[in-house]
């Protein structure tokens, strides 16, 4: 079945409430622990969450145009450079803020973000295209879903750094993975196809699901569900899947944790697929 629209509008508020609740319990040592988002510490990831929420509200809700970039942003590499500069500038400034101030700021701005998204339309044109999915124009639900994946995976980085375990609701991660798999047709864009070539991606665990990537004529397409007799199959746990798609898994770990059957060459691009700009 074709991939359905993923409605994340009602998910922002409970997810953000859980992140804020955890931040309020952290000790000074925990605020300074390293995360998988090297070189960021827990406090840096929290500051980044504030920054991205403020940017989304400013650009999307309030109509403020982003500052002009100093150079061209026509490629993923140049766009990444602009984004990295924006991120680093904010994190540097936020280093002078206390953990209480950071938490109070995220408490307020995440509420505003949830208010905004809960009143948004899924069918409108997106403010920004989802470039990691290879799109030059996107529908709002995918752009909003991308924002949800950002909040979720940065929250997961904080939870891992302080030993808090997984989020309380597996449906949040299922939504994240359902959005993340939109990267796969783009990730396979340069992979030669052929009639009947297909790869099943099975993600196990309470947040998991099954998707099939199939070559259709001149392009690859991703659908929900299994495909008996597929050319290849890749199976991984939901915890492995989010780390893979959000650049938190080394190549060696990915090869060890993703079980494969069938044509190994057809699985390799999956191990390099990232649902973020890298």
CATH architecture of the largest domain: Up-down Bundle
In which order are the strands of the major sheet placed? 3-2-1-4-5
CATH topology of the largest domain: Four Helix Bundle (Hemerythrin (Met), subunit A)
Backbone CA Rg? 19 Å
Give the name of the CATH superfamily of the largest domain. dinb family like domain
Q: Unreliable stretches, pLDDT < 50, 5 or more residues?
A: none
Helical percent range?
A: 40-55%
Question: Helical region count?
Answer: 11
**SSE-based structural type:** alpha+beta
CATH class of the largest domain equals Mainly Alpha
Order of helices and strands: HHHHHHHHEEEEHHEH
Question: What global shape is seen?
Answer: globular
Q: Can you describe this structure?
A:
With 278 residues, the chain is α+β, with helices and mostly antiparallel strands. It folds into 2 domains: 9-168, Four Helix Bundle (Hemerythrin (Met), subunit A), CATH 1.20.120.450; 183-272, SCP2 sterol-binding domain (Nonspecific Lipid-transfer Protein, Chain A, 2-Layer Sandwich). It contains 11 helices and 5 strands. Strands 3-2-1-4-5 form a 5-stranded mixed beta sheet. Helix 3 runs parallel beside helix 5 (99-118), helix 6 (140-161) crosses helix 7 (170-180) and helix 7 (170-180) packs across helix 9 (238-245). The longest helix is centred in the middle third of the chain and has 22 residues, at 140-161. It starts with 11 loop residues before the first helix and ends in a 6-residue tail after the last helix.
């Amino acid at each position: 079945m074709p991939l359905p629209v993923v409605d994340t509008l009602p998910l922002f508020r409970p997810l953000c409430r859980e992140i804020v609740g955890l931040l309020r319990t952290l000790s000074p040592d925990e605020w300074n622990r390293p995360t998988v988002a090297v070189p960021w510490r827990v406090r840096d990831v929290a500051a980044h969450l504030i920054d991205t929420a403020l940017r989304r509200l400013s650009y999307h809700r309030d109509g403020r145009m982003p500052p002009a970039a100093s150079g061209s942003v026509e490629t993923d590499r140049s766009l990444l450079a602009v984004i990295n500069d924006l991120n680093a500038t904010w994190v540097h400034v936020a280093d002078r803020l206390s953990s209480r101030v950071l938490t109070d700021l995220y408490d307020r701005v995440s509420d505003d973000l949830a208010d905004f998204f809960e009143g948004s339309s899924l069918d409108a044109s997106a403010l920004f295209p989802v470039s990691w999915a290879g799109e030059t124009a996107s529908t709002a639900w995918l752009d909003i879903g991308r924002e949800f994946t950002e909040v979720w995976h940065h929250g997961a980085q904080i939870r891992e750094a302080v030993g808090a375990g997984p989020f309380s609701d597996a449906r949040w991660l299922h939504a994240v993975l359902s959005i993340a798999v939109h990267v796969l047709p783009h990730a396979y864009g340069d992979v030669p196809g052929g009639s009947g070539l297909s790869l099943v991606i099975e993600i196990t665990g309470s947040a998991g699901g099954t998707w099939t990537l199939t070559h259709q004529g001149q392009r690859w397409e991703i659908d929900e569900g299994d495909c008996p007799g597929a050319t290849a199959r890749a199976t991984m746990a939901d915890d492995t899947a989010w780390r893979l798609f959000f650049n938190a898994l080394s190549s060696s770990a990915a090869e060890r944790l993703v079980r494969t059957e069938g044509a190994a060459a057809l699985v390799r691009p999956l191990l390099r697929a990232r649902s973020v700009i890298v």
